[in-house]
Amino acid sequence: MSSTFSAAEVKTFCELSVSLAMPRRRGKLKHLMISIGECRSPYEVFVMTAHQAPKEARTPLSEFPVSDKCLGETPRFDDAPAWIYNHDNPYLHGVYAPTTRELNQDKLEVIGELPTDLRGTYYRNGANPVFEPKNRYHPFDGDGMVHALHVSDDGARYVNRWIETPAYTDEGAAGESVSPGVMGPFDYSVSEFGIKDTSNTDIFCLNGDLVSLWYNAGNPIALDPMTLETRKAFHLDGRNKPKMSAHSKVDWRTGELLYFDYNDTPPYMTYGVANAKGEVVHEVPIDLPGARLPHDIGFTKNFTVLHDLPFFHDLDVLKNHKLRVLTFHRDIPTRFGLIPRFGESNTVRWFDCEPCYILHVSNCWEDDDWVIMDGCRSVNPMPRAYGDEGELSHMLAYMRLEANNYRWRFNLVTGEVREGDIDDLNTEFNKTNPLYGGQKSRYAYHQYIPTHDEGGYTLRFTGLVKYDNETGESGRYDYGVGVLGSEAVYAPKVGATSESEEDDGYVVNFVHDTKDWSSWFCVFDAKDIEQGPIAKVRLPGRVPAGFHATWVPQSR
Question: Residue 199 and residue 215: Cα distance in Å, rounded?
């Protein structure tokens, strides 16, 4: 809910983002003056309020104007919890509506033919809330649920299960939502993080465990890779704390896990390396100027690339008001720190770059005196909010993603930085061939994300884009009218190595057809994604949209 507030009151809002003279994409300057009480300030202010009517006062709605605008319609599902219809929130409806079903089914219908050299599992994590939230719902708040599509000689099997985090278990015992969500207010008596650790963001496989991760550097959870049953809290041998951020990376060349976490108290970041058995072999604190919200790291054969980004929260507001306030600091450079894989804290070398936020790295490698990093760059991490989207307008703006394919180059001898666009198309959720992780690669597979002006009122993927990052050329496959995708990952052919041709394999993902609410597993020829899927598997139930995915070969 937007209103007029005193200058002091401005800092009491959750996820309020202040952007100092924030430039829009393509270099256009946006410098808004807004009223804050009796003063005026050159800030762009975004407010997301947390509170809503008490549960006992909530009743099913007859109209959903915001969800209808964002999604086209608000369908009724028999496999979704009834409470979602108490809320006009697009991220609880349509392709985002949670499911109440856990399934395990084999002998699935296949259209086309699954390649005989495609063997392994596609895993995808995402939000799937069980109970009606205490406060306003943010899509990061949903309980984690993993969906898996196993491909074997026996055909295709689909499994999905909730991740049984401590919060999931506690709320199950209470029979209601207990933990607050991203929009606050933070409550450290309920959670060590102040909000629910959902483990709903990312996923990797190490030493026989499938491991789920949370974007806010939560406590990872170990799952059974076949059944998805929760085994236990995941803990690296030799480490005195479990915290680990999403996008900690497994290097397929060495089997090592390169991990990081971050905190609101020193050390503000920790970086470490575990071997393929899950034993810590190296860990060091990283000196940062203050609390930060990094989202990813990159790695080469010899270095890890750490992120210090100028989009972070105000610790005083969090302490005094239990709410998170994010500011994009246009006057602070983005810094990338190169640390030798087993380097000490004082060996980090920082490179200053143009201010930006970066969610996801494609790949990094060394080229003579240079380290190259490809990824997606955002110069506007908080897009414009629209008043006709109601009291959730600023949350909806926060979730819209403006980013493009970008390359940074760091010279290890001179300290020079070179950076620039590979392309300006709005894409993200970028992935590469994991066999090429840390070594020179050429191709990346992104999701096309329509902007607000193109009808992208919520975060949605409408097409698969293959980039040749050497030339900037791209090929694109649009999923079709009413069809939305999930993150697509590269699946190497059976027996492939890092010496194999880089794109001689497959790209796989889930897609969701909103015309009949069917969900599909799609297999693309990585050399020619524009021809569309060469095989499709009909999934036995509706699969909600989610976050990150990975492919684990049968041999691993």
Answer: 8
Q: Token digits for 518?
A: 């069917």
Identify which has the larger pLDDT, 46 or 279. 279
Per-residue pLDDT at 9: 38
Residue 168's CB is within 10 A of a number of other CB atoms, namely 23
Model confidence pLDDT, tens digit, residues 151-176: 999 999 999 999 999 999 999 999 99
Q: Enter the DSSP assignment of 212.
A: E
CA proximity to 124, closest of 446, 545, 519 = 545
> Contact, 228 vs 148, CB < 8 A?
yes
Q: What is the dihedral of CA 87, 90, 95, 99, to 10 degrees?
A: -30
Distance CA 505, CA 489 (A): 11
For 506, list phi and psi in degrees, rounded to 5.
Answer: -130, 155
In angstroms, the CA 315 to CA 297 distance is 23
Whole-number Å distance between alpha carbons of 46 and 391: 11
One-letter amino acid at 182 equals: V
Tokens coding 154: 């026996």
Local structure of 118: helix, strand or coil: coil
Per residue in 284-301, pLDDT (tens digit) is 999 999 999 999 999 999
Please provide the size of the chain in residues: 556
CA distance 148 to 195: 27
Among 138, 233, 247, which Cα is nearest to 195's?
Answer: 138
CA distances (Å), origin 292, targets 219, 267, 408: 18, 11, 21
At 26, which amino acid appears?
R
Per residue in 38-61, pLDDT tens?
222 323 333 344 445 555 557 899
Longest dimension (CA), the chain: 70
| CA distance linking residue 69 with residue 63, whole number of Å | 11
Report pLDDT digits (tens) over 385-433. Answer: 998 888 899 899 999 999 999 999 999 999 999 999 999 999 999 999 9
Out of 44-53, 112-121, 242-251, 536-545, least confident range: 44-53
Q: Strands (DSSP E) along 173-234, which ranges? A: 202-206, 209-213, 221-223, 230-233
Closest CA to 505 of 492, 521, 522, 488: 492
* C-alpha dist (Å) from residue 99 to 65, 174, 462: 22, 20, 22
Interval 509-537 mean pLDDT: 98
Instruction: Yes or no: say if 394 and 15 are a contact pair by the CB < 8 Å rule.
Output: yes
Task: Quickly count: other Cβ atoms within 10 Å of residue 110's Cβ.
Answer: 16
Cβ neighbourhood burial of 467 (10 Å; 0-12, 13-18, 19+):
buried
How confident is the model at residue 14, as a pLDDT?
Answer: 36
Q: How far apart are CA 262 and CA 4, in angstroms?
A: 34
